[in-house]
Inverse folding.
């Protein structure tokens, strides 16, 4: 049982915690009961789709549920003390010192009008009664510990002067200031670039070892959980459906939901020709409409109607695996788990197709006026700085790179929302780079359509689904309203939306449904080139899989070219035929997908690949840490754009001379000073281990 | 087969109906909003049924009781200096204020929305030009501007509407512009451009309807302020032409009696006016409150 003295018992113990929110609709029981324990130095990862109650649990642990939320039953013990019985002043003393939280958006955790050093000092002054000098010393020490360059200078900076990754490091430093015994991290790396995310995860792992804090780590990304945690808790519909050691749960997942989560994400290294993604059908039930019996039953492939729907499912241990618990009646009956293998067909599936899109020496500069006070003339921000690429009919060309590399600018130039500064963009023989979308003929608008990133802003909230699709049909194809109405039904069928959705407004749809409408809208004109700018990055993994499958189906049926912009390399590896890796407005590598993802590759591609969190604890992944930040595109380096961060820099030549483009026979281009033979010698990122 | 069916099955039940009825139902949960709506509806009913409610004709002289009569059973609020029944004049006065104030606000919104949309959508020199003109108007003391306009063009309902439009539309324009600047960056606007919609379509169909939340609240508040303005112009004697009953004018005609002890003569129309304004502000508060939810 929980010991009252800290140190012996578990740091955190949830015992049937039952949490409800009180709203206009009355009590909504979002967490029917969650139990788990966490010992000193342990890290548990909570995963699950959005709406499964992960964050609610995190807030409940800190007793920070706000006015509407309340713990209705069970206990939450922190160091043996019942959180529910603590007074406000006791809570104040604990929060921020013994129990610290790190949230997703660092900017909203930091005070924008106070230098970060000062904010760090406050923790020591308030919670540890430290003096100015002592607090300052400690703050500098922590800034150094979270690997911020030049702690002395960082100390004086304001949050807006730091990059997103640096801000999150400051937040982590702040959380660690008072040596907390429990650290709650709620999607701490979700908004960050993959390379920055990898660095922050490395940091968390290192600090965890050093400070011996217990960690509750919430993430929707199974890969990040594998990097940090030693235990994992899979949450579904407010319940912990499976819990256990990372290795055990991943090797032998017993709950169908855990299996579903593992099957719907592409494993880095597999591609679309090898195996399909399996989305989890349906969606997380609303807390008001919780099914009787097993909560996952309506979406479960292994459901046994009579048993699963009859009563509440108890949590049982998995035999032979200590601490591995699962809430499934059929757990023991399920077939042994077949881990999705990374299978890639290396066959030349990327045969030459007739060219559809040709981008040649494209430049897009944004003119910036210099400040009147700073002096100096106007300058250019070189968002796209001389890039070339091409895509054939029916092919998928993926553009990858960190934020700020120019990939979204490229989409804007292609769509005509911006015009090129220089260079050409040719779509089926017609030059479109310099033509704004307003001036493009209707046939051209029809040919080229786009699916946007943010499902929340992609549809006009005032317009119904039917209107959105029909309007596109009328504008792009010139249909009459009657024809458009019939045609829109057909499109909705293609994107697998029920026909009665026509009258719905966007706010009545889920994120995945909105993205389907957006795809239907883009398909209205039968486009030959479909640009998709991060179409799945805002969606849950289960929905992501079905949208990716949908895009592939549509593409195959219409022989359309897909330009897929993404930062998720697993998805790109899975979906793409050709890949362009962009860095600072340049294409550093271009080639067919299996060429780009295997040596020889550009050192930047190598670093990106090494940063991808892989949801498999048994696979060895080489880590290359990218130091520093991307240089400013207003003043790009003279030589190789990547030289300042490159781990394989060969000398000053990298900084002074633009790299030559190495072209192999297959059309694979690498912009690097390193000789091709040397690049060939680089070992692959992921070494498949036998298991 | 592994057909993606995740989004198709189930589907949430529509949470609430769309439209005005839903807004009214939501408003029930805001006490302030309900009180405001009650007051505004009360005055609207008074205005509509004025001929039935008013015991006397508003401009008829009640010679049987004479001027400045104290409240009595025949004349609940007494009579004014010209022996007209004050209650009847207040009741008929509501017709004027409730016609001119919403009309003037509407005109200010039509002009203000156009200016704001153009400035926010096109930005650049269009924005600079329009907003500079607006700033010049805004930099004038409002009261003086009203008086100048009314004195120059003469007192009439039409001129009040014109004056309010002139003074209020720059304020509306600023609000609409800031909303437009934000909404024009939405992806659905880019999608509209990509299917070749005209600029007017984008401004009026894609952008404006989504700015309606803050605009409805502001319009409600502004109607109340316009009612004050009408009263103020009446009080200064540059509002509507006598003898038609106008609350501001009634206060002007009778405030001299405040010292004489006939306090109700000026206070009754003043109370009518302020209750209407309070009604509009409470309604605006309620609308703001429900717009913050969901």
């Amino acid at each position: 049982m929980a010991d009252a003295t800290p140190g012996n018992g578990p740091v955190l113990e949830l015992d049937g915690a039952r949490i409800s929110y009180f709203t206009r609709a009355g009590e909504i029981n979002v967490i029917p009961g969650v139990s788990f324990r966490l010992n000193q130095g342990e890290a548990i990862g909570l995963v699950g789709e959005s709406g499964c109650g992960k964050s609610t649990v995190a807030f409940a642990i800190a007793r920070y549920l706000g006015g509407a939320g309340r713990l209705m039953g069970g206990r939450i013990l922190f160091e043996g003390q019942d959180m529910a019985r603590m007074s406000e002043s006791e809570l104040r003393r604990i929060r921020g010192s013994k129990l610290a939280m790190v949230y997703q958006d660092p900017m909203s955790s930091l005070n924008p009008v106070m230098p970060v050093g000062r904010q760090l000092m406050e923790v020591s002054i308030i919670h540890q009664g430290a003096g100015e000098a002592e607090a300052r010393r400690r703050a500098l020490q922590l800034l150094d510990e979270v690997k911020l360059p030049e702690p002395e200078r960082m100390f004086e900076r304001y949050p807006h002067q730091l990059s997103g990754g640096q801000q999150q490091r400051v937040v982590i430093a702040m959380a660690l200031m008072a040596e907390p015994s429990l650290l709650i991290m709620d999607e701490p790396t979700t908004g960050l670039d993959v390379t920055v995310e990898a660095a922050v995860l490395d940091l968390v792992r290192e600090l965890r070892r050093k400070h011996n804090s217990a960690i509750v780590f919430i993430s929707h990304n199974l890969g990040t959980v594998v990097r940090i945690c030693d235990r994992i808790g899979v949450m579904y519909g407010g319940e912990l459906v499976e819990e256990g050691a990372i290795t055990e749960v991943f090797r032998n997942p017993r709950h169908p939901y855990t299996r579903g989560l593992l099957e719907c994400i592409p494993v880095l290294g597999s591609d679309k020709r090898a195996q399909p993604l399996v989305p989890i059908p349906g969606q997380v039930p609303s807390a008001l409409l919780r099914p009787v019996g097993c909560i996952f039953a309506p979406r479960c492939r292994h459901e046994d109607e009579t048993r699963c729907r009859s009563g509440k499912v108890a949590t049982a241990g998995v035999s032979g695996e200590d601490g591995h618990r699962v809430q499934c009646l059929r757990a023991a009956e399920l077939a042994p788990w077949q881990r999705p293998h990374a299978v890639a067909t290396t066959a030349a599936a990327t045969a030459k197709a007739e060219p559809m899109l040709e981008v040649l020496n494209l430049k897009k500069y944004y003119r910036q006026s210099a400040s009147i006070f700073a002096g100096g003339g106007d300058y250019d921000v070189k968002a796209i700085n001389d890039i070339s690429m091409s895509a054939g009919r029916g092919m998928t060309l993926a553009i990858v790179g960190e934020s700020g590399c120019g990939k979204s600018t490229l989409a804007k130039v292609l769509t005509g929302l911006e015009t090129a500064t220089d260079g050409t963009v040719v779509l089926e023989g017609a030059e479109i780079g310099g033509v704004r979308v307003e001036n493009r003929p209707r046939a051209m608008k029809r040919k080229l359509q786009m699916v946007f990133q943010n499902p929340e802003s992609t549809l006009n909230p005032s317009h119904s689904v039917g209107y959105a699709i029909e309007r596109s049909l009328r504008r792009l194809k010139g249909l009459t309203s009657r024809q458009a109405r019939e045609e829109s039904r057909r499109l909705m069928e293609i994107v697998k939306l029920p026909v009665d959705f026509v009258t719905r407004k966007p706010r009545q749809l889920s994120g995945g449904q909105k993205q389907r409408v957006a795809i239907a809208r883009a398909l209205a004109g039968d486009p030959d080139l479909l640009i998709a700018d991060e179409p799945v990055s805002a969606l849950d993994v289960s929905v992501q899989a079905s949208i990716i499958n949908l895009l592939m189906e549509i593409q195959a049926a219409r022989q359309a070219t897909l330009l897929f912009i993404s930062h998720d390399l697993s998805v790109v590896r899975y979906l793409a035929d050709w890949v362009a890796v962009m860095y600072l407005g340049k294409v550093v590598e271009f080639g067919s997908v299996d060429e780009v993802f295997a040596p020889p590759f550009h050192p930047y591609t190598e670093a990106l690949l090494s940063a991808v969190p892989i949801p498999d604890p048994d696979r060895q992944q080489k880590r290359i840490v990218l130091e520093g930040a991307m240089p400013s595109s207003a003043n790009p380096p003279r030589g190789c754009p990547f030289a300042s961060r490159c781990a394989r820099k060969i000398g000053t030549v990298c900084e002074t001379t633009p790299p030559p483009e190495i072209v192999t026979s297959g059309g694979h281009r690498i912009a690097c000073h390193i000789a091709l033979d040397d690049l060939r010698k680089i070992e692959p990122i992921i070494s498949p281990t036998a298991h | 087969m592994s057909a993606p069916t995740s989004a198709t099955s189930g589907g949430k039940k529509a949470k609430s109906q769309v439209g005005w009825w839903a807004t009214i139902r939501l408003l029930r949960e805001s006490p302030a909003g309900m009180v405001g709506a009650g007051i505004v509806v009360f005055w609207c009913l008074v205005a509509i049924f004025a001929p039935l409610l008013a015991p006397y004709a508003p401009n008829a002289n009640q010679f049987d009781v004479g001027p400045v009569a104290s409240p009595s059973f025949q004349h609940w609020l007494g009579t004014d200096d010209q022996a007209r029944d004050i209650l009847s004049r207040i009741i008929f006065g509501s017709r004027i204020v409730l016609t001119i104030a919403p009309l003037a606000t509407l005109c200010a919104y039509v002009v203000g929305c156009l200016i704001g949309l153009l400035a926010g959508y096109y930005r650049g020199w269009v924005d600079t030009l329009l907003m500079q003109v607006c700033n010049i108007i805004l930099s004038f003391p409002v009261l003086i501007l009203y008086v100048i306009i009314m004195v120059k063009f003469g007192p009439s309902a039409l001129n009040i509407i014109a004056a309010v439009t002139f003074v209020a539309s720059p304020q509306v324009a600023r609000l609409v512009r800031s909303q437009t600047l934000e909404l024009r960056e939405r992806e659905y606007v880019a999608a509209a451009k990509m299917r070749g919609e005209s600029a007017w379509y984008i401004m009026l169909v894609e952008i404006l309807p989504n700015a309606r939340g803050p605009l409805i609240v502001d319009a409600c508040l502004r109607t109340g302020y316009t009612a004050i303005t009408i009263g103020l112009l009446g009080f200064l004697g540059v509002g509507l032409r006598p003898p038609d009953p106008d609350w501001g004018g009634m206060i002007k005609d009778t405030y001299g009696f405040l010292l004489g002890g006939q306090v109700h003569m000026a206070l009754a129309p003043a109370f009518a006016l302020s209750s209407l304004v309070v009604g509009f502000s409470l309604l605006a508060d309620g609308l703001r409150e429900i717009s913050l939810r969901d």
Observations:
- The radius of gyration of chain A is 26 Å.
- Residues 194-211 of chain A form the longest helix (18 residues).
- The CA atoms of residues 44 and 379 of chain A lie 49 Å apart.
- The longest strand of chain A covers residues 355-368.
